[in-house]
Description:
Elements: H1 15-24, H2 29-42, E1 49-52, H3 54-69, E2 82-86, H4 113-120, E3 124-129, E4 141-142, E5 146-147, H5 163-171, E6 176-181, H6 187-192, E7 196-199, H7 218-221, E8 223-228, H8 234-241, E9 268-273, H9 282-297, E10 301-306, H10 313-323, H11 346-359, H12 363-366, H13 369-389, E11 393-396, H14 417-425, E12 429-436, E13 442-448, H15 454-468
Helix pairs in contact: 2-3, 9-15, 10-13, 10-14
Amino acid sequence: MGPRTSTTPLTQRSATELAAAIRSGDTTSVEVVEAHIEVLERIGDLNALAVDRFDLARAEAAAADARVAAGDTDLPPLHGVPCTIKEMLAVEGMPHTGGYPHRRSFREAADAPVVRRVREAGAIVLGLGNTCGFLVWIESNHPIYGRAGSAYDPSRTAGGSSGGDGAIVGSGGAPFALGSDLGGSIRIPAFFNGVFGHLPSPGLVPLTGHFPMPDGDLRRRLSPGPLARRAEDLMPLLRIIAGPDGDDPHTEPQPLGDPADVSLDGLPVTVATQSSTFPVRADIKRGIDEAAAALGRAGARVVEAPLKQLRWALAQFGATAIAELDLLLSWEGITAPTRPGHKPPLLVRGPAAVLRVVESAPVRSVRTLAARRLIDSAQEAQDTLLDTIGDGVLLYPPFPRLAPKHRTTIGQPWLATNTAIFNLYGLPATQVPLGLTGDGLPLGVQVVSAAGRDHLTIAVAGQLERDLGGWVDPADR
């Protein structure tokens, strides 16, 4: 893929390019915002955008242009660039249901720290991306906003739980979005919608302002992160949202490397084999083989390694969560009233009450022998995986099959194993688009490294984008 020029449509450029064009006067924020709103209105049937704030966005764009016209040279890095935010992250004045209908009328008083940071960096929020219901899942089917479809085929799921934002970015409706990822909730939608998605290293990005909110160590496994149509935006966005906020107990200062400093010459690249819980479809395997070949041509040292122990990752994830007394439905706030005297429906109160009883049980009665063995095996698998990756990266399928039809993932939690592995083991992972199949569906690969080496997976993502094309605008197919 050659360099993009000023003739590239606004809805195909990176956030970095758009910000530079707005600062230079080559275009205006109003023009950029209107171009993306036009796309969002055109794809309305996808139910990707849960709630818009178009009027406010237009006013903010006009204000951004006024600063440029006044000769202001102290402009932030994302000045005038539009984006969307997953509905589970707080945006001032906007709904924040987290998938719970009893919060339908609730409005947030303040931005989540990650949202505040991108807005202080100049970004303009166009609206909230659709997400899943209260039973967190790998499809986005919200009880209020409806079901979100893939940018490439409305009959297929956009993924979950950041599915709406995946479909928005994949359709050209925003250059980037903020989502959150516990077991693949950024990377699965990014894969199904043909865009980039990054799971940050644990403790890098604060979760404050997310709803619902897990307790304990499970909170550390859930992280906000970016989705983007161009790889060059991932690291700038990560730098903007990273760092302690004074509230999240798990976030700590961590150095961030520079993808530009990464050399692919001699870089160890491991292609995992025999590791998926369910067989990977031929198209996906072919895409990963092409990615490995491209990195080999760039000088990387590519090897294959059987990692059979990763097949048990989902069971290990569940055992760890139970042992930590952090079951998903026990997340903080799901039964909190949204107005005086209000009580959530029994559908919410019932499971939460049961789980409170479970959480009060002695640890020994919860940690069965089988669970302890699974937890021990998770640690052993993590150690083996880190030894295998070393100073390099792992190429791993993001999902065992292409974007599925709606409802076909129900009752199959093991489908998320390929992504949940890396939340469990605490490793950063970048989902990279690898173009389309002959049927027009996205291909992709996860690039994984050791914790604290986010810049390495992002550098490899950039190389694969240059060699294999990256995101394809559905309008250009």
